[in-house]
Design goal:
This is FecR domain-containing protein. It comes from Ensifer oleiphilus. Pfam families: FecR (PF04773). One of its GO terms (molecular function) is sigma factor antagonist activity. The chain has four helices and 19 strands. By secondary structure, it is an alpha+beta fold. It has two domains: about 140 residues, Jelly Rolls; about 70 residues, Phage tail protein beta-alpha-beta fold (3-Layer(bab) Sandwich), CATH 3.55.50.30. A seven-stranded mixed beta sheet has the order 1-4-5-7-8-11-12, covered by helices on one side. β7 and β8 form a beta hairpin. The longest helix is centred in the N-terminal third of the chain and has 25 residues.
Length: about 240
């Protein structure tokens, strides 16, 4: 019996740890839960990584390429038309010359928010969604499972608000926001109710107090945050 429990525990550990281990092996820069970091590239570009995030960089004489492996990053790109700058996140590509923008991976969604400049977003060759451009104060959420794009507006000073200890979301699902908060919370967060996870919210949430942020996230819909085993948070509809 004890051996069986140990085997199950070991299997669960491998299932949960394998993706994280693979990301660590690929990443050039990585942050821990709740940790932000600033990365300066050789061309003068500055990247700010959010909590529990990872990137891989490739710099050549003809171009600059960054892959967002997990989490979120804000890019302040040095202007250089001779070396286009590309960010790839879950198959979604953002092409720029010199600009400032944020890219986030959460669940099946890739979100791009533009602070200044112009970016071109490509959903992928396998999708019928045409490439499109974003202007300052615009954002787009790409559903990577079907290629659907939802475009919206955002105040430029709210782009990458996590850099000042907050996250701003607009028409985002509770599940996606919970995943963002997970990167700043030591506890494991789960939303087992798919209906609750799919409800949309707009708001500003405090990363310095993620438990209060979780309550603010679900209470308007009658939801509750249940604590279990100290290091677990369940968001429920009752």
């Amino acid at each position: 019996m004890i051996a069986s429990v140990a085997a199950i525990a070991a299997t669960l550990f491998l299932v949960l740890a394998a993706p994280s281990l693979l990301i660590r092996l690929q990443a050039d820069h990585i942050t821990a839960t709740g940790q932000n970091a600033r990365v300066a590239l050789e061309d003068g570009t500055v990247i700010e990584l959010g909590g529990d995030s990872a990137i891989k960089t490739e710099m050549t004489t003809g171009g600059r390429h960054v892959t967002l492996l997990s989490g979120e990053a804000f890019f302040d790109v040095a202007h250089n038309p001779a070396r286009p700058f590309t960010v790839e996140a879950g198959g979604v590509k953002v092409l720029v010359v010199g600009t400032a923008f944020d890219v986030r991976l959460a669940g099946e969604e890739t979100t791009v928010e533009l602070e200044r400049g112009v970016v071109q977003v490509s959903v992928g060759e396998s999708r019928k969604t045409p490439d499109f451009r974003l202007l300052p104060g615009e954002m787009a959420v790409v559903n990577r499972s079907d290629g659907a794009v939802t475009r919206n507006t955002i105040e430029p000073d709210q782009v990458a608000a996590w850099r000042s200890g907050r996250i701003f979301v607009k028409d985002a699902s509770i599940g996606a926001v919970a995943e963002q908060l997970q990167r700043y919370h030591s506890a494991w967060i789960a939303v087992p109710d798919r209906k609750l996870a799919g409800l949309k919210v707009t708001g500003l949430y405090d990363l310095h107090d993620p438990d209060s942020a979780l309550k603010a996230l679900v209470e308007p819909y009658g939801g509750r945050v249940r604590t279990f085993l100290t290091y677990g948070r369940l968001l429920t509809h009752y």
